Amino acid sequence: MTAVVWAALGGTKTGNALVDIPYGAVNLSGCLPYTIAKLPSDYSAQLVTGG
C-alpha cells in the first residue's frame, strides 16, 4: 500500500472525487475543514481522563 484515502465529511461529489484522485485528474492542494496538530500540546484544551 502506498497511500490511504480518507473520505470523511463527504458530500454529493465524493464519489467522483474518489475516482479522480488515483487517476491523477485533480491537484490535491486543498484545505481541511478542521486542524490536525503535530503534538497534543499544540491544542489549547486537553482531555483529562482518569480519577
TrEMBL record:
Record GO terms (molecular function): hydrolase activity, hydrolyzing O-glycosyl compounds
UniProt cross-references to Gene3D superfamilies, sorted A to Z: Glycoside hydrolase family 3 C-terminal domain (3.40.50.1700)
Swiss-Prot/TrEMBL GO biological process terms: carbohydrate metabolic process
Keyword Ubl conjugation: no
UniProt domain Glycoside hydrolase family 3 C-terminal: residue ranges: 2-43
InterPro entries in UniProt: Glyco_hydro_3_C, Glyco_hydro_3_C_sf
Keywords: Glycosidase, Hydrolase
Family listed: Belongs to the glycosyl hydrolase 3 family.
Protein name: Glycoside hydrolase family 3 C-terminal domain-containing protein
Species this chain originates from: Lactarius akahatsu
Lineage: Eukaryota, Fungi, Dikarya, Basidiomycota, Agaricomycotina
